[in-house]
Amino acid sequence: MGKTPEFDLAASPGHLLHRAQQFAAEHFAKAMPDDMKLTQRQFAVLAATAGQEGLTQTDLVRATGIDRSTLAELVSRMVTRKLLRRERVPGDARANAIHLTDEGRTVYDTALASAKAADESIMESLPKNKRSSFLETLRRISMSIEEAEAKLKAEALKEKEAVKKAAKKAAKKAKKKEKKKKKK
């Protein structure tokens, strides 16, 4: 007799989301023209940039959900491919504004119809009456990720300020102690 599995993959949200991502990536790749050689993440960067030219890489992290180091590498490769160009942001030597090149705009415009077709294909795998709730669920998951990241940032900032405050307090105490020593 078979043993009951300790972990049911068919009931695991993490596993099922991973499988759904594989399904989405497969549909995206199939929908793209053979000569396009564009990944979902690259398309997300192009779409976010097309939506608002001049975003910084930090803005692109927020818009796409791609982590900072991966996005920096991705943008670098896309600059090399002449899909994007970087410009220094006036007043902030560390920030780069990202813009589509003419080639990037052409690739985006060509890929857009394919990306929409891939999304339609994914949605067609669901019953019509479940599609909007599916998208809402995905949005909620995405928002909870963003909220958790914002909470972590706020906690880190609070901790940093507490450390500064403690250091100031210790310095003040040491100064007071030094004054007492001098009076003696």
Task: Report on this structure.
With 184 residues, this protein is mostly helical. Helices cover 70% and strands 9% of the residues. The protein has 6 helices and 3 strands. The chain has helices at residues 13-31, 40-51, 57-64, 68-80, 102-124, 131-183; strands at residues 55-56, 84-89, 92-100. The chain has a 3-stranded antiparallel sheet with strand order 1-3-2. Strand 2 and strand 3 form a beta hairpin. Helix 1 crosses helix 5, helix 2 packs across helix 5 (102-124) and helix 3 (57-64) packs across helix 4. The termini are far apart. The model has no long low-confidence stretch (mean pLDDT 89).
Estimated structural class: mainly alpha
Strand content: 5-15%
Total helical elements = 6
Q: Average pLDDT across residues?
A: 89
| Helix content estimate | 55-70%
The main sheet orders its strands as 1-3-2
What's the SSE pattern?
Answer: HHEHHEEHH
Largest sheet: 3 strands, antiparallel
Evaluate the radius of gyration: 25 Å
The count of β-strands is 3
**Any idea what the shape is?**
flat
Contiguous low-pLDDT stretches (5 residues minimum) are none
Distance between the termini: 86 Å
